[in-house]
Amino acid sequence: MQYQNIKKIDPQIYKIIKAEEKRQKEGLELIPSENYTSLAVLETMGSILTNKYSEGYPRKRYYGGQENIDDMEELAQKRALDLFVPKRSQKNWYVNIQPYSGSPANIAVLFGLLKFGDRVMGMKLDQGGHLTHGHPVNFSGRAYKFFQYGVRKDNQTVDYDAIEAIAKKVKPKLIISGATAYPRIIDFKKFQAIAKKVGAIHLADISHIAGLVAGDVHPSPFPFTDVVTTTTHKTLRGPRGAIIMCQKKYASQIDKAVFPGLQGGPHDHINAAKAVCFSEAQKANFAKYAAQIVKNSRAFARELTKLGFDLVSGGSDNHLILIDLTNSGIPGKEAQQILDDVGMTLNKNTVPFDKRSPFDPSGIRLGTPALTTRGMKEKEFVLIAQLMKRALKGRNDQNELKKVTRLVKNLAVKFPVPGIK
Ligand SMILES: *Cc1c(COP(=O)(O)O)cnc(C)c1O
């Protein structure tokens, strides 16, 4: 990308962008929710579509001058359906592409389909769920009565029996499936069966795995789920934003909740970039990318295990790995800092049944999507696992850390980031 005007008009922000370019180019990005968008997505986000106000929905707007925006939004809706919903079921599905991000999308679903105080089920944050799945500090946990579920103690996978037992007891109006720090396949069919048994609406939040679902390497919640939310910027590799897909009978409640219930004017430049991303995700090389994410995770998990790391649930089926560092003597926060210092970016994370606090938890969370986008394969992830081990082991040896820093940079710069020279 060229930033000639920013350079002239605002040298301070220009300097920050250039410094961030350098960080992104020279570092190994292992945060599983991050990715690199294509140049086409970047261009669309930077387009003049940002100049328009278009409160409302296609052909039903409050202001004039909407002929192009209406075309764009309808195209984005159609492409989202084509990407996710099997052809024969599309007539039953509706898409709202306006949510500003994943959190407002989830809140809009709760707001649109429930009354304040209604009973809801979602996954606990410290066992892999998202804040908007009922955490007490979040709007979701404050406005609704949440009953949270988690994973089994023995194998750290989703405890479907316990979920069914809770559901039968509390009779929730809505059950949220999906997670933000869970390394295994999620069985949406099981969630749907449980929801059906107790007469609850099933919301599948596929924010993390949308790219894997689109690329057909994770079971899809379509077409049987009631509502599906997803961010568009994680494995799906689009602009920062989200969409809500739902059975048609919920369409007007969802639309009203997003606007005028929760949001104002849609971000047309971002929504157009979502359309670009949906089109990119239907190309053959996207399915290859999705398959490679999973292959890379498996190779990464295998090597980490070989090196003595303790993986939550013993491995990974998707794009994400959780390491329990309890037995290594290095807590998550310290590990994050050591690895950050040598150029490997990841995040500290709680592990199931963590005895430490979320500010200094026992684990770290890492993932393969961003570096897969840069073209890295199994071989590189084996090397990254070894570099991680060296950095953590040599944390008190400045010479060793310098060596690892150099090796990290040498590896990273061989794989270009779209938009960075
Ligand atoms: C990331 C995420 C969200 C929230 O998305 P934001 O865009 O950060 O608001 C919601 N649900 C899940 C499962 C997520 O992983």
UniProtKB/TrEMBL annotation:
The record marks 233 as: Plays an important role in substrate specificity. It is an enzyme of class 2 (transferase). Residues 7-387 form the Serine hydroxymethyltransferase-like domain. GO terms for molecular function: glycine hydroxymethyltransferase activity; methyltransferase activity; pyridoxal phosphate binding. It is found in: Cytoplasm. Its EC number is 2.1.2.1. This is Serine hydroxymethyltransferase.
